[in-house]
Amino acid sequence: MRLSLVFFMLILLPVAAAVHAWLFCRDNLPALSQEAVKRLKDAGVRDPVVDIRFFDIAVTGEAPDPDSRKKALQAIRSLVPLRLQPGADRLHVLAGLNARLDSNTLHLTGWLPEGDEIENVRQLLAELRPDLTLNTQALHTAPEVRWAEGTKPPLTASSPLLKPVLDMLRVPAELHISAKDDAILLSGLLPATALKHELVSALAEVAGARVVDPSALKASPHVLSASFARPESLAAFVSSFFQAPPPRSFDISGDGIPHLSGLATRQMESQWLALLRPVTGSAKVDARLTFLPSTYHFPGYQPRSAIPPATLEAVRGSLRDAAIHFETGSSQIPAEEQTKLTALAPVLLSAGPALGIIVGAHPDPAGPDGVEKEIGRARAQAVMSFLIDQGVPANFDVVVFDPVPASSAGAPAMPRTVELLIR
Q: Which of 41, 121, 412, 423 is most buried, by the most CB atoms less than 10 A from its CB?
């Protein structure tokens, strides 16, 4: 009897265990599964999946960062009577990169897989935006971090992970050039390094003793393309514009409107506008130029006549107040102006045959251009002939200066005059 009872109990135990297991699975596992999912979500895990097989649990999902992953695993391990076996935690941290632009500093945050990717990102962004300072103190790596599907290291400018950052950093092209007495300074952003080199080379050819400083001009393929960034055409204009004496400046940005400032003659303005046409198309030019009658009137003009400095200064002093005035519409030298020229002749003779004289007529800007140029040349010819009759050697250049409005800072004291300058 006892032996029969023992056998009965041995048979009943597995059945009881099976029943208990079935009841546990029916009544407790759903609640444990819901609790596990809740704990994972509370820890910040996205799309958590829980697989419970009796007392063993496996979890899958994406944690926002390693700390959240650690917190989630601790929460699952504390969920009794479940057991998290090694290899059953399939929680990952998906690689992510965020950026915030603060003035000229780009702050990067996020997580990347272990390796050299932080330095790779730094180098990549430095090439694309060399004008920015990069702060990567909040960008970290960890072994739990994995790449998103479709992303392969190393990261490049076409990687989906970097696209939002790069789109935020795309900037319009701009160019600023200013010329001073001792230097030509370039700044801005260009879409191509070749264009930068071409501009620097063009300026170096006309800089003379001035320093060409391009340190503040950056070139990057991440700069937006611009209609003005035409290498040969832009360099041709820059070379011509900055060949003229300083101070002067040229500025242009993505809107394609060029801004010019500096000294000029009307002929220079026409030449520069023609050179700018292929660069800017139909865009209006903002030309804030101060017009002078000729290049001989530019500050710092150095005469080429080979005469001693003392003689040069003496002749300059005599010519400074020697403008010859004419009546309206006349090319005849008035009697009082002839007296002025007669007194001037000995000074010119004493300088010797090496002295070259520019005999330049200032036309009346209020009169018809063609008529004023014709009568202006006749007046200059009359002054030259009078000086030759006084014995001054025929070392003259007869010119008609550009008309300059009386309101301009570079206008002559009076129109309808002939001015004598040392060549």
A: 121
Backbone angles phi, psi at 59, to 5 degrees: -125, 145
* Burial group, residue 279, by CB count within 10 angstroms (0-12, 13-18, 19+): buried
% of the chain surpassing 90 pLDDT: 44
> What is the C-alpha to C-alpha distance for residues 395 and 349, in angstroms, rounded to an integer?
11
Structure tokens at 314: 């003496």
| pLDDT band of 20, cuts 50, 70, 90 | very low
> End-to-end distance of the chain based on CA atoms, in angstroms?
143
What are the DSSP calls for 130-183, one per residue? TTSEEEEEEEEEETTEEPPTT--SSP-TT-TTTHHHHHHH-B--EEEEEE-SSE
Q: Distance between CA atoms of 15 and 19, rounded to whole angstroms?
A: 6
The distance from CA 235 to its chain's CA centroid, rounded to whole angstroms, is: 16
Provide DSSP, 66-113.
Answer: HHHHHHHHHHHHTSTT-EEEEEEEEEEEE-EEEEEEETTEEEEEEEEE
Alpha carbon distance 155, 417 (integer Å): 72
DSSP line for 319-356: HHT-PEE--TT--SPPHHHHHHHHHHHHHHHHT-TT--
How far apart are the C-alpha atoms of 354 and 49, rounded to whole Å?
99
The DSSP call for residue 28 is: T
Gyration radius of the chain's alpha carbons = 42
Please check whether residue 237 is in contact with residue 275, taking contact to mean a CB–CB distance below 8 angstroms.
yes
Q: What pLDDT is stored for residue 8 in this prediction?
A: 54
Token pair recorded at residue 96 = 């992510």
- Cis omega (within 30 of 0) for bond into 403: no
Q: What integer is the mean pLDDT of 93-114? A: 91
What CA–CA distances, in Å, run from 299 to 74, 247, 263, 303, 368?
81, 10, 9, 12, 29
* pLDDT grade for 10, boundaries at 50, 70 and 90: low
- Let me know: does 379 contact 331? Beta carbons within 8 Å: yes
- pTM over 0.85? The answer is no
Other beta carbons within 10 Å of 68: 19
CB neighbours of residue 167 within 10 Å: 9
Distances (CA, A) of 375 to 103, 292, 363, 370: 60, 20, 8, 9
